[in-house]
Amino acid sequence: MFKRWWWVFLVTAFLGPVIGLGVAAVVTYAMPRQYESRAVVQVKPRVPPMTVFGRSPGELSAEGSMTPRFFAAEFEAIKSRDVLIKVIQRLDLQTKWGQDQGTIIGILRGIVDTQNIRGTDLIAIKVRHTNAEDTRDIAVEVAKVYKEFRNETEGKGEDRKLEELKKAVREQEDKVEEKRKLLGRIKTGPDSVDYVEAKKENETAQDMLGHTRLKQQVEQIQKQIQTDSIMVHEEPVVPRYAVRPNVRLNLVLGVIVGFLFSPLMALPVVVLLHRRVPAACPVPAVQHPFFS
Asked: Among 41, 60, 184, 238, which one has the highest count of C-beta atoms within 10 angstroms of its own C-beta?
């Protein structure tokens, strides 16, 4: 049977890729287009809270490091509910998309992707959506709200540190005044053991007060010269071309799949011809090396 109808396999070997190409073209055309826009931001690690006695060596070493845990925390902040709600409000997505806030938050978490650019302190905020302009607008607002959120959080942290230091200064001033009064109440001479001990405690309290006031001044200066912890290095733009579907890849796969399935396409044709055409019919008996 195969010797007689070998040419059918040659025909389907040609038609299979053509059919696969056509099917892939139709499917690709029917698939929704997805566009991508991204913002690239540079992020600095948060400074651990200052205490009266300074920071521990572990905190100092962690302050300048960019660990995977640090970036994981930032990724969660970027896609946090508070950030996404502000994005929804600023772009009026509830009216634009005709969906409730909770549904849109779920959609945004699905289309917003965050990634650390390897070997840098840069974060890429990518947004994929079926509308090119919405893709750009969402990426812009996510980066902007995240920057505001982080600056606000760090600003509150700076205020808490300053308030803690102010409180420490007041407490230390009270201790200095208490030691001074105690020293004044001692009526024995300067060679007295009690007087010497009280004088040492007074001097120690004054030194601690000076140290605490210095820390307070340093923190105040740092707050005044504090720069933004987030810098945008790449602004999102309206994408010109869709990233999905991949037209070229889909067409190539269609041709390959069509070629691979061409023998299966030939089999029913060969069986049908073998049943309908009698063996006595003069069919060109061209021999092919493959079937000989």
From this structure: 41
Q: From residue 95, how far is each of 26, 82, 90, 236 by CA, in Å?
A: 33, 19, 11, 23
Give the C-alpha separation, 174 to 281, whole Å: 119
Q: Please report, in angstroms and rounded to a whole number, the separation of the first and last CA atoms in the chain.
A: 12
Q: pTM for the full model?
A: 0.60
- pLDDT tens digits, one per residue of 30-58: 888 889 999 999 887 655 544 444 444 44
Per DSSP bridges, beta strands 112-116 and 35-43 are unpaired
Taking only the tens place, the pLDDT of each residue in 137-196 is 999 999 999 988 888 877 666 667 777 778 887 888 888 888 777 777 776 555 666 777
Phi, psi (degrees; rounded to nearest 5) at 189: -75, 170
Q: How many CA atoms lie within 13 A of 267 on its CB side?
A: 4
Evaluate whether 236 touches 141 at the Cβ level (below 8 Å).
Answer: no
**Cross-strand bridge partners of residue 122:** 42
38 forms bridges with which residues in the sheet?
A: 126
Q: Supply φ then ψ for residue 128, to 5 degrees.
A: -120, 130
